[in-house]
Write a structure and sequence with these properties.
The protein is α+β, with helices and mostly antiparallel strands and 166 residues long. The protein folds into 2 domains: 80 residues, no CATH class; 52 residues, DNA Binding (I), subunit A (Orthogonal Bundle), CATH 1.10.30.50. The chain has 5 helices and 6 strands; from the N terminus they run E-E-H-E-E-H-E-E-H-H-H. Strands 2-1-4-3 form a 4-stranded mixed sheet. Strands 5-6 form a two-stranded antiparallel ribbon. The longest helix is centred in the first third of the chain and has 9 residues. It is elongated, with a radius of gyration of 20 Å. The mean pLDDT is 91. It binds zinc ion (ZN). The site of zinc ion has 8 residues, from strand 6 and helix 3.
């Protein structure tokens, strides 16, 4: 069964939950139903896909760690230079380390071995290898998870509640 997107009272995405848990929140009056996908649990009870809490939950900001796995995931496991998708990916410093480029979300991208070697210690401009998109810090780990769920035709009704999904 598909997941349900839970929004905070402020309409910001809060987490994902099971449809059972979502139904409990609805029945207890703790949440309202915003979106359905046309399926029904009972004749007059549509299966929720997005619900919104009636009360505000304070969420502590959690820094998302700069790790190889997270960078590859942010870049959808694609080389940011040639678009190769697969598991033979390396991390490339956009401004090379030898030229003062540091380890940061804005300076590290997924690159295939070929592109990484080809680029060498040059900037993308010098190497004439433009990036697919400018690297940036991800919004949150929840955002990562949401991006995974909103692919193809799936969960299209979530889009309007989630910013920055390509
Ligand atoms: Zn490449």
């Amino acid at each position: 069964m598909s997941k349900v997107l839970v929004l905070n009272a402020s309409y910001e995405p809060l987490n994902l939950t099971s449809w059972r848990r979502a139904v409990v929140l609805l029945l207890k009056g703790k949440a309202e139903q915003l979106e359905y996908n046309g399926k029904f649990i009972y004749t007059d009870f549509p299966l929720p896909t997005v619900i919104r809490l009636r009360y505000y939950v304070r969420v502590p900001y959690k820094e998302i760690p700069l790790t190889r796995r997270n960078i590859l995931e942010r870049d959808s496991n694609r080389c940011q230079y040639c678009g190769y998708k697969g598991d033979q990916l390396t991390l490339d410093h956009v401004i090379p380390r030898s030229r003062g480029g540091g380890d940061s979300w804005e300076n590290m991208v997924a690159a295939c071995v070929r592109c990484n070697v080809k680029k060498g210690s040059r900037t993308p401009k010098e190497a004439e290898m433009p990036l697919a998109r400018p690297p940036r810090r991800p919004y949150s780990s929840l955002h990562f998870e949401l991006a995974r769920h909103i692919q193809g035709e799936r969960n299209q009704e979530w889009r309007k509640y989630v910013i920055g999904i390509p």
